[in-house]
Specification:
Length: 113
């Protein structure tokens, strides 16, 4: 469904430029860029799965990068309410302090392990 909506928006607004209004082009909006990256990653993952290239037999691990990128589309849910914006902004401001606490805890884990 999201792929169909993205395709319709690209047709209507244009991918990079819109002759009527340059600000309404599809890739001018940041959420549309995230959707575009997520959907392209999904199709790359799907192509790798269909060709059997997703699993690397030598190393025994899977290429999960494209699956993780296709999960970016869930970030659009954070844009639904104002409360989630407040929470994300507060976490963004508290991130340096949380990193300091994380290093402090890891220091004690390394010493007492």
């Amino acid at each position: 469904m999201v792929r169909l909506v993205m395709l319709c928006r690209i047709v209507v607004y244009g991918l990079f430029q819109n002759p009527n209004n340059a600000k309404t082009a599809f890739l001018r909006h940041s959420w549309n860029r995230i959707d575009f990256v997520a959907i392209v990653a999904y199709w790359i993952d799907f192509a790798l799965l269909m060709t059997g290239q997703e699993i690397i037999d030598d190393i025994g691990r899977r290429l999960l990068v494209f699956k993780m990128l296709s999960a970016l589309i869930l970030l659009r849910l954070l844009n639904l309410t104002d409360g989630s914006k407040v929470i994300l902004n507060s976490l963004k401001k508290a991130a340096p302090l949380l990193v300091n606490v994380l290093f402090f805890v890891l220091f004690f884990f390394v010493i007492f392990a």
